[in-house]
């Protein structure tokens, strides 16, 4: 199976680096701005370099605002019945159809931990996608972590707001946490190690525990102890809950605008 990947930025590169380990898939990346394709994939820099080639399927991995101008040039090199996959956040099936025509289309919304096989990817197919197309979507998404096929395109925007953009929220929380640790006198190196190990350990424990996260939180919160004091400030006036809800609402609203 031959796969054309149009664009290879941070997210596209993370996906290709995992997909290329599958010997059943031959991947060609087209991107004029990178020095080399991920190991196992081929690189071309311009549409003219594809002369005489025809791909079974393609992945759109350019920014949403570039799709309408960039993608049409590559359509002659994709099999007429070949599925178009898109990882562009918020760019709807209707918008994609206006660019690529009436053909199988599957939107996929991955997140950055796909780079290490720990990603979360939601995907949604249009009514022209065959069982083979959705099987390929599952193969691609499983290769980078957890897969979630949604039954409504609107749900894909929700996956985008929660998981697709979610790693950005986590990284920002970690950054602020590290700064707070440094502010009380710990070195940057020690602050980084303490915070990353604490976050990573808590996530792994929550993932394998039969207790709810609320129960886990309570298990480390002694009455009148240090954790209770910290949590009281974190949860003051419902600030944490409201901030997270507002964050996800804002991301969802933007995903809807991008349709």
> What structural class should be given to the helix and strand makeup?
alpha/beta
Please mark out the parts with pLDDT under 50 across 5 or more consecutive residues, or reply none.
none
Residues in β-strands, percent: 5-15%
- Calculate the mean pLDDT score and round it: 94
The description of the largest β-sheet is: 8 strands, mixed
- Specify the number of helices: 10
**Helical residue percent band:** 40-55%
Rg over CA atoms: 21 Å
Strands, total number: 8
Q: How would you describe this protein?
A:
- Helix 4 links the parallel strand 7 (about 120-125) and strand 8 (about 145-150).
- The chain has helices spanning about 10-20, 65-70, 95-100, 130-140, 155-165, 165-185, 190-210, 215-220, 225-235, 240-255, and strands spanning about 1-5, 25-30, 40-45, 55-60, 85, 105-110, 120-125, 145-150.
- The chain is of the alpha/beta class.
- The protein contains 10 helices and 8 strands.
- About 45% of the residues lie in helices and about 15% in strands.
């Amino acid at each position: 199976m031959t796969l054309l990947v149009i664009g290879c930025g941070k997210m596209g590169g993370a996906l290709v680096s995992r997909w290329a380990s599958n010997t059943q898939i031959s991947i060609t990346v087209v991107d004029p701005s990178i020095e080399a394709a991920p190991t196992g994939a081929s690189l071309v820099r311009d549409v003219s370099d594809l002369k005489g080639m025809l791909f079974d399927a393609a992945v759109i991995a350019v920014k949403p605002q570039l799709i309408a101008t960039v993608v049409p040039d590559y359509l002659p090199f994709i099999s007429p019945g070949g599925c178009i996959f898109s990882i562009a956040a918020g760019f709807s099936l209707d918008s994609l159809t206006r660019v690529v025509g009436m053909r199988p289309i599957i939107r996929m919304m991955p997140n950055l931990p796909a780079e290490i096989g720990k990603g979360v990817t939601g995907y949604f197919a249009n009514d022209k996608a065959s069982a083979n197309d959705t099987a390929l979507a599952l193969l691609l998404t499983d290769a980078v972590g957890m897969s979630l096929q949604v039954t409504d395109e609107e749900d894909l925007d929700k996956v985008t707001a929660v998981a697709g953009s979610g790693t950005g929220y986590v990284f920002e929380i970690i950054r602020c946490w590290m700064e707070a640790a440094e502010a009380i006198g710990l070195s940057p190196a020690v602050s980084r190690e303490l915070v990353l190990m604490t976050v990573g350990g808590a996530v792994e424990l929550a993932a394998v525990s039969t207790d709810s996260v609320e129960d886990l939180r309570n298990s480390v919160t002694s009455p009148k102890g240090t954790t209770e004091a910290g949590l009281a400030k974190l949860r003051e006036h419902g600030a944490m809950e409201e901030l997270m809800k507002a964050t996800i609402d804002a991301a969802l609203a933007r995903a809807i605008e991008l349709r």
